[in-house]
Records
---
Amino acid sequence: MAYNSADIAAFKNVWVFCEQRQGKMMPTTFELISEGRKLADELGVELCGILLGDDVDGIAAELGGYGADRVYVYNSPLLKDYTTDAYTKVIVDAVEEFKPEIMIYGASHIGRDLAPRCAARLHTGLCADCTHLDVDLNGYVEFLRTGSNVDVDNTNFETKMFDVNTNLKMTRPAFGGHLMATIVCPRFRPAMATVRPGVMKRRPFDEEGVKKIEIVHPDFELSAEDVKTEVVEVVKAAKKLVDLIGAEYIVSVGRGIAKDVDGGIALAEELADVLGGVVGSSRAVVDAGWMTADHQVGQTGKTVHPKVYIALGISGAIQHKAGMQESEYIIAVNKDENAPMFEIADYGIVGDLFKVVPLLIESIKEAKAEA
Ligand SMILES: Cc1cc2nc3c(=O)[nH]c(=O)nc-3n(C[C@H](O)[C@H](O)[C@H](O)COP(=O)(O)OP(=O)(O)OC[C@H]3O[C@@H](n4cnc5c(N)ncnc54)[C@H](O)[C@@H]3O)c2cc1C
């Protein structure tokens, strides 16, 4: 049968684009596989990964540990390094052959380049930078009940236009983060979404899944003529960027450090040091040139969920909260008792951060010495 993205009934299963670089799986892939498992269970279908590279079989089975049922592996020297042409061709051909109903990509540089190209070729929709995904209507309603001010009890979600119970509901910030929009792609398949690194939670690793996963090597066609760009060399950024996404403790600074920028950053670094964590920041701090952009937490920065997030002199704008409100514990230090950050903080300290933080550092050191 010829490919027809409007023939909804012909599409089945949830797919995740499994991004690897230099033969190493990107951590976001495990987050997406974990989320894909949830969606596949809601639909009662299989979860499949699609992995492209050169000799990448060795990293495929691990995907089973996070919930994948099957992984389609495409090996070729032409797929060793990412190029838009080669990856788009192989993925589009695979989608035409196997017809997944949902396809998720990480919103990495590669995912942001690849997903729109594939969506355009396949004539389907793509929702970029999603922060929440649902198929199940009850789950979606619950998400709205707890995370929005929509009057869900008096809202009719049924629609004549599409089956609300089987379509992927893709939620993302809109209008500069001032509201959240939920988008569906009811008329074409696959429904495609990109999700930023760190947004979805990784499931606990299950060794049994590794034993059960099915690894498939479909036939495919790809020749040098299909690839119009040549990767001559891969040069890694010399500077080591801060690893906010993997950190368990994050101490973030905001414009509240303005009266002594260097002193404020030094205090945050010392606090992060005693906790074994890293330093993040609000966008105001990056915009002012006080810290580099890799430290920024929030809607246009990184999405983090550490064990403990300490916000020093950060007001708590919605765009900042969007990147850290899923942290296990939030501690806010702010001299304004009405700062919105206190609304989501588990512990709040009203005071001058330059006075409060040295006391915090001292008591943590004491507690550590006693332990
Ligand atoms: C499209 C868009 C995307 C955005 N994306 C992001 C994003 O990703 N991340 C982000 O952070 N922002 C983002 N923003 C900006 C966001 O709206 C806020 O402007 C920003 O978060 C404010 O940063 P801040 O809290 O550090 O500064 P402010 O809002 O100025 O707050 C400073 C806080 O410090 C407190 N303070 C001052 N002195 C002290 C002191 N000595 N001790 C203790 N507290 C003190 C003040 O009471 C105040 O609450 C975005 C905005 C837009 C429009």
Note: DSSP finds ten helices and 17 strands in the chain.
---
Amino acid sequence: MASPEFGTVTGREPCAAASSLSSCSSRSSSAQQLSTSFYSNSCPGVQGCDASLLLDDTSSFQGEKTATPNNASVRGFEVIDTVKIAVEKVCPGVVSCADILAIAARDSVVILGGPNWNVKVGRRDSTTASFNSANNNIPPLTSSLANLTSLFAAQGLSQKDMVALSGAHTIGLARCTNFRAHIYNDSDIDGAFASSRQSGCPRTSGSGDDNLAPLDLQTPTLFETTTTRT
Ligand code: HEM
């Protein structure tokens, strides 16, 4: 049985409630165990790598799911829940949701043809989240280059890091509400591309806002590593 220190997993959303979070303990030994100062090296001064995004709002707690950049956008929580349930069955109270997220991200990239890398484990799940930090620190899609650069710099990331990381948009989907203005108003957009996107994204705001379209037109489910090279 899991000790109270680890919490227990109940219900259908094991990663979504602060009270049911588990984390790796000093008792677990692994060659890939992170150090106790992991966060001071990898995420200094920020909330991050801690799965705080997974926490649901409650009557007394506001999480990050409904912060402007995340609201109606971040998806796939059920995938992490399914993995967590399976892991808990064989290894209760040990593997954090934050580790599952990091491994799932790596595995997704590999499955879609991208690069492989070793994921160190031992992240601890957050029992708190910051709605305000999510709003203030995640770049809005309307950001200028200067604003993007400074928000990345605030996390210790260079402009080069920013460009390389933005290559992640070689996979994934965007909502109509986020690209409607471009496909209907821009004059410097390929006409055929604009009209193909218009077919799945009505002109009127409030209509089809959450309709999804691939970010990468040609190879939407292939994680290329060449297109971002200059
Ligand atoms: C440079 C600042 C960034 C901005 C302004 C930005 C903006 C966006 C926007 C607007 C979307 C579409 C969301 C929607 O319509 O609901 C999106 C999707 C996505 N972004 Fe970014 N992004 C940035 C950086 C990153 C980084 C650093 C990564 C990862 C390394 C990333 C990975 C993704 C992925 C995988 C998707 C698709 C998600 C899905 O299919 O559910 N983005 N991004």
Note: The chain has two domains: 18-137, 145-214.
